[in-house]
Amino acid sequence: MTKKIKGALYCFLLSSAALFYTSVVFGQNEKKVKVEKVPKQDRIDVLINDKPFTSFLYPDTLEKPVLYPVHAADGQIVTRGFPINPQPGEPTDHPHHLGIWFNFENVNGLDFWNNSYAIPADKKHLYGWIKTDRIINASGGKTGTILYHANWTDQKNNVLLEEVTKLSFSGTEHHRIIDRVTTLTADTMVKFTDAKDGMYAIRLAHELQIPDKKDKEFKDDKGNVTVVKGGADDVANGNYLTSEGKTGDDAWSTRGRWCKVYGKMGNDSMTVAIIDHPENPNYPTFWHARGYGLFAANPLGEKIFTNGKSAKNLQLKKGESVTFRFRIVIDSDNKTLSVAELNKLADDFAK
User: Fold this and answer.
1) What is the CA radius of gyration of the chain?
2) Are 312 and 194 in contact (CB under 8 A)?
3) Domains in the chain, number
4) Element of type H or E holding 16
5) What does the longest C-alpha to C-alpha distance in the chain come to?
6) Ranges of the chain whose pLDDT falls below 50
7) Which keywords does this Swiss-Prot/TrEMBL entry list (predicted)?
8) Would residue 25 count as lying in a domain?
9) pLDDT of residue 24
């Protein structure tokens, strides 16, 4: 057993303990989790109480592994359908925004974040790929687990980083939780150059967008411009709130131990929260939270978020590692998760 796998298994024990505390916070019985490999497909389905929660998709045809789609306890899907399963009326910008994912815009000059099927072949050499080559464990119970190994590569399959990630899944009557522990180990000298687009992200369903009547343009580090259309939108009704009290579009570029997006989906109030961990680099994280539905925690985007006042570049020598821990909480109930509830969830995750 390699040191990297031993480290991941140790994190497995820690995060399993954290999930026990979570069930106490919610005051409800945890539901049984099934984790099922799909034969001859690079897919693992996760079900809670025999209801679909999410699927782990890891074919090399995708530029990174993702969780997609993601269901709340009431069955509502909180992730955008596009580009795999577009829904009527939803936006079709940023085709690299798919489900829940983890990557970064600038690793040794390679852009892992913006890579997608939409990149022209003659530009692909500027982009990185995350290829899952081994499922170490996939099991169910009170907590579901997927433990996997992946390689962060260039287009010639040269490995920059080896990734070991453990995903934990749990749920109660109204709640769903995903805990992620990712350890990245450098196969060569690696530099994460401070950049806007990263790191742990979800592309939200149309309902959880903030309504906006104006078109907006967003530019990546290569000068590529994406237009997000505004206009009359009677579906979007979302809003952001951070642990520091920032709301709406003002959440973007600010720091906090947690951030939630909330809105009405069907008959329920829906909350999707990302919780940072105090052992993560540059805690508390910056929030790359856009009104059009991109919701991300990016601890390595300090330069743009502070208007150049400071920067956070992370460098690993060959053999060195860094670990990131995040929690996503999805709540469907008659009211949104309160500040007190989210603080308690963050406290328990920190243990």
Assistant:
1) 19
2) yes
3) 1
4) helix 3-26
5) 57
6) 1, 12-14, 16-17, 20-21, 24
7) Signal
8) no
9) 47
